[in-house]
Amino acid sequence: MKDSGLVRIKLVICLVKKDDIAYNSMRMWQAASGVSKYDGIVSPAYTVLVPANGESSTFFGYQFKQTEMKQIFQRNSQGLTSDTWNLKYPLLSRIKTSAPERTEQIKIGEFLTKLDNLIAVNQRKLEKLQELKKGYLQKMFC
User: Fold this and answer.
1) pTM of the model
2) Model confidence over 31-56: pLDDT tens digits?
């Protein structure tokens, strides 16, 4: 077989399933994580956390975004500067968090998700009203 001159790249695939939490180990201190809505793959730059013992990934997804947790992630990251801070899984796995019982976790996650959805709907309404205002202003002051 003739060499095409292309560099051969080994593709590393990281599987993620619905309700897993994927996080970027280089940006966890900035809350670079999210709960997956789908089964699929993520970049090897991400670590996939699978909820254990029926824990609510939605609850922990919100918890990971809190300022206090981001500060804990930052303190546990390794590296000289923020550009190189890294929170690999062995370090993350040693961080202790508190959480209510599973049923309460689910209720909290559902409540916060409903609030996020309500905020999103109202944000879209606000954007449409701002666009409408801009159009009226252009017509009135052309």
Assistant:
1) 0.80
2) 999 999 999 999 888 999 998 888 99
Q: Could you tell me where the beta strands, DSSP code E, fall in the chain?
A: 14-16, 21-24, 33-35, 40-42, 46-49
Position 13 scores a pLDDT of 63
> Is the pLDDT confidence value at 24 over 70?
yes
Rounded distance, CA 131 to CA 142, Å? 16
Q: Are 33 and 23 in contact (CB under 8 A)?
A: yes
Distances (CA, A) of 19 to 22, 28, 50, 64, 66: 9, 18, 8, 14, 19
Q: Which two tokens stand for residue 131?
A: 């666009």
